[in-house]
Every structure is written in C-alpha cells, then in structure tokens.
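Please study the protein below:
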Amino acid sequence: MKKYLFPVIIAAMAVLSCGSKEPGQNPAAPAEPTELKVDLTSPTSATLTWVHDGKGVEGWWVFLRKEKEPEGIAPLNQSTPLAADYRSYTFDKLEKGRSYYFGVRAKGAEASGLTVYSELTAIPSDEPQPADTTISDPGTDPTDPVTHEPVIFSADPEAMTASFKSKSSKGEDILITLSKVSANQTVQIDKYQVGNEAFTSYTDWIGPYNMRTIAATTQTEKAWGFTGGWHGSNGDGTGDPTAQTQKIEVSLDGKPDSEGTGLEATVIVYNKVEAANTKFDESKRFVLDEKVTYTFKDSRLYVKVETTALEDVRISIYYGMQIAGGFCSKFDFTTEDGKTTTTTQNYFSAGKTRDMTGYSQGGHSVTAHMFDEGLGTFEKATKSYSALTQYYGANNGKGYYMLIGDKDASSNSYVLKKDETVYWSGYYEFR
C-alpha cells in the first residue's frame, strides 16, 4: 500500500521488543507481533500496524508510552481488547511536540506476556515549516511526496457553488467544482478536470442510503431503492427529490472567506435525506441529517460525512465513498496488508481496503482512500468484502466502499437510532 508519513523524529534504534517474556511462559502462547509501523494520520493521531499469523490469538491489547515512561504500564483497552483479526489501531488525542512508543500484545488462552513497541516517534509541533518542505500523509508513497501546493478557491454560498483549483502531486492542473446537481439538486461533485481530461458527473461520489424507517408508514410497494445522493424518488437518478441541501458554509485557511488563494479551502454541506418509505405522499419526511465536509489541501480533496438519525431507521446498504462511473477503465484495490489487485470487471475486494484507484482511458487516475475510523473500520458491513467495482458498460466502471450491510441488502443491516451519529472520513486524490 502506498503511504506518506508525516515528518517524524525517529530515535536511532531498530524496531524492538521492549517487553520481555515472563518466567515460565508457555511455548504454546501466541508469537509476538512483528513489522510494527507507525503512520501519523493527523496532527494529533497515529496508526500502528503490525503483522501476525493469528495463531492462538483471541484479541489484542494496545499500549501508549511517553518517552521516559517505564515499560510496565496497563493497556489502553484492558477491558475491551481488539478483535483477533485486527492488525492496526489508531491512537487519538496525542500531544504535539511529544514523543511516544506505540505497543501491542496478543491476548490468548496462553498469554504471551510480551509487549512489542515501535520505535520512538515524535509528534510534530506547530512550529512553522519552510515553504518548500514536503509533507506526508497515509495512503501514498514517500518517493512521490505531496507538497504544500496552494489552492485557488472560489465559492458562492447563496448559489451553493464552489470550486477548487490547484496542482496534482504530479504537477498537473486540477479543477473540482461543487454545485447543485442530480434530481435532488443537492450540492455534490459536479465537474472535475485532471490535466487535459475533463469530466462531468452523472452519478454520486458520496453514496446514497438504502434504508427504511422503523416506524410503519403508508408506503408499501413503492418503498424501495436508494435515497439521497444522486437518487430521486424512482429509486434511480429520476423522480422527485429525496434529499435537500439546507445550506453550505465556506472557509479559507480556517477563516470565513469565499474567494482567494490559500493552503486549505473547506466547504461544509448540510443535507436532509428521506427514507425509501418516507419519500411519497402523506408519509413524505426527512429522516436523516447529513453533514458533508470537503477540504482541499495538499493536492487532495478530503471528505468527512457525519450522518445523524432524526428517527429510528434501518440502513440496509450504505457505500459512503465512491468513485463515479464514466471515469474508470480499470481499478486497483489495495488492502491493509499491502496486497494490490487490478481488475477491469466486476470485483469484490476481500480484506480491509484502504485505497481504491480508478484509471481513465486517458491515463489519469483518482484514488479514494478510506481512513481506519468510524464506519471505515468496516465493523458494520459484511465481512466478505470491504469494497467493490461494478461495470455498466465498456470502460464505465464505478467503485464503491462497503460501509453498512452488503450489496444485496441481505445481511449486516444497521438500525441507526434517533439522535445517533455515524461517520467516515477519507480523501480523493486526482492525478
């Protein structure tokens, strides 16, 4: 898997086992994890990954030690160990400018008693960086760094439009526009240009919902299909609106501003969405609040979606992050273990997919990276696959993450209770 790392200060030491085997340890105990790696995924969070064959493992404890703290500390999740199939954990609320060791230990019927720690890693402070300093992020290759490329931002909150103009990490011109599109006339990705290739969306990038309210309604035979995103009341891209953008908020470099050049431009879109059984007649009503935050920085469009229930709803299918059709002639799927699979046909990606890349016929690409948090842990979806592609004609593939349920609405549906919020976050990189 390609990854960038934020600048870190690494102590002059190899990855080591800072714990020691307890006297009388049973040889049948799980082996210690290996190949520990730390990626800084935000200014105050870091993700630890490790490798293990899973033999004898019933779960995982994780540890966080400050630089001069002794080894004999309790795990952060002592009462709730991670599931046995986990091979990563994200540590949040880290202090800027402080150094940490990140550790992990297997839990088994025969306890190993051995905690393995990463190298000493320093969390960057807020001190200014030189203008030409490259930065790093999860999901890309250190040999292909992302720089502080400025973004030209223009928005009209009343008209609900916005555009981001910048350079890709390869130096190509990028233009992405948001505007009111689809049968819903909600604010979504409308047009995008990479180098000399330009595209107009005709389907959603931020996924719709296949859901119904728990409370009974008058809807019966009409109560099917997706709502929100690009989908109208007919279940496809036609019909009456099933969602509505209430407003957008814009900022540039953290300050309310609708036009200018900076390093970080943000558009927050506030939507309301109906369910399949509340989209017609006297039952028509909104059942979800959806907050979509688009932030363009460092040649990427970062996205976070927060979904809050206005009443109890059962969600049967939710893809969340997608790569729109009409763009892709082939796809790469890269899972957490670094395995990449290339396909030009319908495909279901097993394991936890972190990067999904679609390639145009003209040779450009868009990568959809899913962060390992919220729905991005894939805990509310089928275990059979975490992402998929479907082809709707020659060179017309569309990529989907699988965040709730499964493609056929046959398993892993989730009841989102009134006032409950779920979220996911990731980024798009156009090159």
